[in-house]
Write a structure and sequence with these properties.
- The protein has 4 helices and 8 strands, in the order E-H-H-E-E-E-H-E-H-E-E-E.
- The chain has 142 residues and is an alpha+beta fold.
- It has a single domain, classed as Aminopeptidase.
- Strands 1, 2, 3, 4, 5, 6, 7 and 8 form an 8-stranded mixed beta sheet that branches.
- The longest helix is centred in the first third of the chain and has 18 residues.
Length: 142
């Protein structure tokens, strides 16, 4: 069974970190010290599973009253193109809405902008580099 959920245990947290390391550090060459940062301690983490196998991750943190920032959203290559990114985002957006967030912000890798636009996110910045990767800031009202 495939599910996405809020992290509720140390094992689930480590599973989310494992996915992030595989995607961002190993696949995209993001330095580990940039991927695992000081915000991990304050963020609410999410993980997606196929049975017992973790394959997706993400986090949300509050940046301003009623505004959340979606970060570190990733899906392992084998699971891409199968709507699991939507499953992950829906889980995170549902959490944000039920916890009083009125707006979500994120920095999307430029190639992923069409994915976020389909989820009603709007571009709010020119392109910029983050960890050497082109990004654009986006947001969505909940």
């Amino acid at each position: 069974m495939v599910i996405a959920k809020k992290v509720e245990s140390e094992k689930e947290y480590q599973d989310a970190i494992l996915v992030r390391r595989k995607v961002f550090v190993e696949e995209q060459d993001v330095p580990l010290h940039l991927e695992l940062d000081e915000y991990d301690a304050e963020a609410v983490h999410f993980v997606a599973y196929d049975g017992e196998t973790p394959f997706g991750a993400g986090r949300i943190r509050s940046t301003e009253p009623s505004i959340g920032k979606v970060e570190r959203v990733c899906i392992l290559p084998k699971y891409r193109g199968k709507s699991f990114g939507n499953l992950m985002m829906q889980c995170m957006e549902d959490y944000a809405f039920s916890n009083g967030f009125q707006k979500l912000k994120l920095n999307a890798q430029s190639y992923a902008i069409p994915f976020y636009e389909k989820r009603q996110y709007t571009i709010t910045s020119p392109e910029f580099l983050e960890a050497g990767i082109p990004h654009r800031a986006m947001d969505k009202s909940l």
